[in-house]
Amino acid sequence: MWVNVSLIAVSVVLLIYWFRYTCLLILSARCSRNYAAMVAEANALRFPEIEQALAHAQSAELAHLDALHLALARDYQLLTCLIRHGAEFRMAGRQLEHRMLVLDFQLMRASYAMSRRLSIRRGHLALQEMVHILYHFADMMGECTASAQ
After folding, report:
1. From the centroid of its chain, how far is CA 40?
2. Rounded Cα–Cα distance for residues 113 and 69 (Å)
3. Distance between CA atoms of 70 and 133, rounded to whole angstroms?
4. CA–centroid distance for 16 within its chain
5. How many Cα atoms are found within 13 Å in the side-chain-facing hemisphere of 48?
6. 122: exposed, middle or buried (C-beta count within 10 Å: 0-12, 13-18, 19+)?
7. Domain of 63?
8. Which of 19, 15, 11, 43 is closest to 101 using CA atoms?
9. pTM of the prediction?
10. CA torsion, points 6, 110, 40, 19, in degrees to nearest 10?
């Protein structure tokens, strides 16, 4: 009985580790060309300026982080809507990657909500990863647009 429980616990821990490592690996891969800035400018997205604000605000106050969190949630909704409904943004062969990052974004939102009052630093790190996910989505959109032309 205890062997089964410990085996399941170890398997769950390894699955979580694999998921986090894979998401960070996906986010570390960069396109040969940076499309995110163009996509952000064309769609009035704020994640590039939020990245700048996070980089310069080491000891940000909670209200400021909450405002950045809301802006990131808005950008996420807009980007995912554009990806979902845009005809040229069909991600052949990238569905699993996209779904993993969508799940990671939701997990980072939950992580921010739970940790923001306990540790501003942890909330800050969750927001930074959310920004990286949005950069990846914008790069994917830009890459799909460039290849369609």
Report:
1. 15
2. 9
3. 15
4. 17
5. 14
6. middle
7. 2-148
8. 19
9. 0.89
10. 0
Q: How many domains does the chain have?
A: 1
Token duo for residue 46: 């704020």
User: CA neighbours within 13 Å on the CB side: how many for 2?
Assistant: 0
Structure tokens belonging to residue 64: 């400021």
45-56 in b/e form (b: 16+ CB < 10 A) is bbbbebbebbee
- Reading the block at residue 56, the tokens are 């310069």
Q: How far is the C-alpha of 59 from the C-alpha of 120, rounded, in Å?
A: 8
Is 60 exceeded by the pLDDT of residue 42?
yes
Q: What is the pLDDT of residues 62-96, one digit of tens each?
A: 778 889 999 999 999 999 988 888 755 666 567 88
SS3 69: helix
Among residues 34, 53, 4, the alpha carbon closest in space to that of 140 is found at: 34
